[in-house]
Amino acid sequence: MEVYYTEDDKHIAQGVKAYLEAKDLHVTILETASATKQALLKKQPAIILIDWNLPDGSGDLLCGWIRRRFGDSLPVLFLTVKGETEDIVKGFQNGADDYVVKPFELEILYSRMMAILRRAGNYEADKLFCDRIHLDREKMKVCHEDQEVLLSRMEYQVLLRLMENKGKTVTRKKLLEEIWDSNGNFVNDNTLTVTMKRLREKLGNPPCIKTVRSFGYRMEDTL
After folding, report:
1. Distance, CA of 47 to CA of 123 (rounded, Å)
2. Which terminal Cβ of the chain has fewer Cβ within 10 Å, N or C?
3. Whole-angstrom Cα distance, residue 217 to residue 171?
4. Which helix (H) or strand (E) holds 163?
5. Of 23, 46, 48, which is closest to residue 120 (Cα–Cα)?
6. What is the pLDDT of residues 22-48, one digit of tens each?
7. pLDDT surpassing 50 at residue 130
């Protein structure tokens, strides 16, 4: 399970990371609000931990941005020394799911994270990202530069499989078998070529969709 932790204090961040990874979680440390936004636009984790005081802004503003950008789909937990009542209230008003004040027990942090995820209903994000392309599996909706892109059924299925395998090359044979043959539509190889051409055009020919010559395609972040 992927966890993002926005914290500029390396000592605290590494301590939390070591503990959570011993619990079989994967933790990515991000030191600024800007780095966090860039990471979230590429991939949404199961949960994000946020410190309040960041080098380039405050955690409550970052939390507000997350809620505007992703709605309620991403659980947010504040992990901060700011323990005054007004700070805690402000954190919740900006969209936090929970609020833990430093110093804290790592066992309690982990328990509260698990409680948030149980309430969320699932651990797997429904949203996929690659550069400026955003795919929402639940809504079957694709956006580029925050603008919805209308795709055909086959174009959507191709994009979905490439984004689900981001960073890996997907062979032409596999795409043909999984998308067309599974539906009883036996087509020739040129059908995939045409579908890819139309998909790229609708997405503005993004550099994140790579052609692996004579083999297949790969999506990877370029920004």
Report:
1. 8
2. C
3. 6
4. helix 153-164
5. 46
6. 887 889 999 999 999 999 988 889 999
7. yes
Cα 130–Cα 132–Cα 133 angle in degrees, nearest 5 = 60
What's the count of helices (H) and strands (E) in the chain, helices before strands? Answer: 8, 14
**Residue 197: partners with Cβ closer than 8 Å, 6 or more residues away:** none
Task: Tell me the C-alpha distance between 76 and 113, whole Å.
Answer: 9
Here the tokens at position 108 are: 């309690």
pLDDT of 125: 54
Contacts by 153-160 with C-beta closer than 8 Å and gap 24+? 154/179, 154/180, 154/195, 155/195, 155/198, 155/199, 155/202, 158/192, 158/195, 158/196, 158/199, 159/133, 159/135, 159/199, 159/203, 160/128, 160/135
Q: How many CA atoms lie within 13 A of 117 on its CB side?
A: 19
